[in-house]
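Tutorial, part two.
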Amino acid sequence: MSKVDPQIAAMLSEKLIKEFCINNQVDSPQDIAMVLEMLISKSARAIEKYNGTATARKVCDKTSYQLSVSPCEWHRS
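Running the prediction step on this input gives:
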């Protein structure tokens, strides 16, 4: 059983991304996309390293699916 609360993980992830962008003056849509693309890539590789390629692909596929069926809940502020 996981010790990680999904809601807390989501909240912390959003906070870290926002703080990183603010602290490093990442504010253009292009720069935000580039930074977060690298974060997605590095995250997928970390999942692969510790859980295997199949699990990493499953997580990426699930994320891609959610993008196609659910509207964005974040709004720039």
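The longest helix spans residues 29-51. In part three we will examine how such features are distributed along the chain.
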